[in-house]
Design brief:
With about 90 residues, the chain is an all-alpha fold. It has helices at about 1-10, 15-65, 75-85. The termini are far apart.
Length: about 90
């Protein structure tokens, strides 16, 4: 009922006032939609960055665990070649 009364009063006002009210309402709707879009957009970016950091951290761990450590065994390629020549 309050909405009907308000609309009825607004219809009786001059054209430029009705236009101003319509502009305010439209601006409010656009601002609300923009805030909703920005929230969804930036939260998806945050999620992507978080996932990317997780993948990067995981791949750093994988590559660091597969580091080749030089052998301390006395049989190296140079020794093997000399042993073969001695035979």
């Amino acid at each position: 009922m309050l909405a009907h009364r308000t609309i009825h009063r607004l219809k009786q006002r001059p054209h430029h006032e009705r236009r101003a009210v319509a502009l305010l309402i439209a601006t409010g709707v656009v601002i609300v939609l923009f805030i909703g879009w920005a929230y969804a957009f930036f939260s998806s970016i945050h999620t992507s960055v978080t996932e990317q950091q997780t993948v990067t951290d995981t791949s750093d761990v994988d590559t660091s665990s597969s580091v080749v450590v030089p052998s301390t065994d006395s049989t190296t390629n140079a020794d093997f070649g000399q042993t073969e020549a001695a035979q």
